[in-house]
């Protein structure tokens, strides 16, 4: 298993799509604060407010959409170019192969998801002269939950990338899915109590509560933590079963 991780990690480090996405997001994180510098009212802005209302809100879209591109090139493209067929014929268990790729891909998704909360926040803090910084507990908590929900969404993306063995189709489907599915689920929740329960306990809804971490306590906090973990395990198992039964050409 260790060799599988090393092989997947090597491929991830060499993946051009990952580094392109990281560079673009980093450039946005470092350049956006320049607009604040030229804003005459910037002195009244607190880092905490900017972190909560702009960085975390913007990161919602980053986490749900940007890793879809990485999944298409890191996972789906290996089917179309024949790499996955060679890997599957190596003698390793397909379940171990899938989870090795899923875990390494999730690490790549985490790297993408932390650019805004860390680099963007750092750049804004300097621009605002560290005025009204978020508390260390709130900041660390949102970072931890960001990681958990990133791997939850990554497990779904890995499943879709396995279903669609063409990178273009995989990326197109996933972008559309993650843009509209939560809205569809929300509409269905108003029609049926079953869908309402599914929506209330889904990562799509709870993910939005990260920004309100300072007001979440008790059972709600447990739900906020356990839901992405259960989602990652469930979709990981589902994806490994699909990969085990999949005919690789």
Automatic annotation (TrEMBL):
Keywords: Membrane, Transmembrane, Transmembrane helix. Pfam families: ABC2_membrane_4 (PF12730). The chain crosses the membrane at residues 18-38, 61-81, 102-124, 136-161, 173-195, 221-243. The keyword Transmembrane applies. The keyword DNA-binding does not apply. This is ABC transporter permease. It comes from Mesobacillus maritimus. The lineage of its organism: Bacteria, Bacillati, Bacillota, Bacilli, Bacillales.
């Amino acid at each position: 298993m260790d060799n599988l991780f090393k092989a997947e990690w090597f491929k991830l480090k060499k993946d051009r799509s990952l580094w392109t996405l990281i560079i673009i997001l980093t450039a946005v994180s470092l350049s956006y604060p320049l607009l604040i510098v030229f804003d005459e009212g910037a002195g009244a802005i607190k880092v905490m407010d900017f972190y909560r209302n702009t960085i975390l809100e913007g990161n919602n879209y980053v986490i749900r959409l940007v890793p879809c591109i990485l999944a298409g090139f890191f996972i789906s493209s290996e089917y179309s170019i024949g790499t996955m067929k060679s890997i599957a014929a190596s003698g390793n268990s397909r379940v171990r192969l899938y989870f090795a790729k899923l875990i390494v891909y999730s690490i790549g998704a985490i790297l993408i998801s932390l650019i805004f909360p860390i680099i963007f926040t750092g750049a804004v803090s300097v621009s605002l002269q560290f005025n009204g910084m978020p508390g260390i507990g709130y900041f660390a908590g949102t970072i931890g939950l960001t990681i958990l929900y990133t791997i939850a969404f990554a497990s779904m993306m890995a499943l879709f990338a396995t279903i669609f063995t063409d990178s273009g189709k995989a990326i197109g489907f996933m972008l559309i899915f993650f843009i509209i599915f939560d809205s569809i689920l929300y509409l269905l929740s108003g029609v049926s109590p079953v869908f309402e329960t599914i929506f209330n306990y889904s990562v799509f809804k709870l993910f939005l509560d990260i920004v309100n971490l300072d007001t979440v306590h008790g059972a709600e906090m447990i739900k906020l933590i356990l839901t992405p973990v259960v989602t990652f395990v469930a979709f990981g198992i589902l994806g490994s079963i699909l990969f085990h039964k999949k005919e690789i050409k």
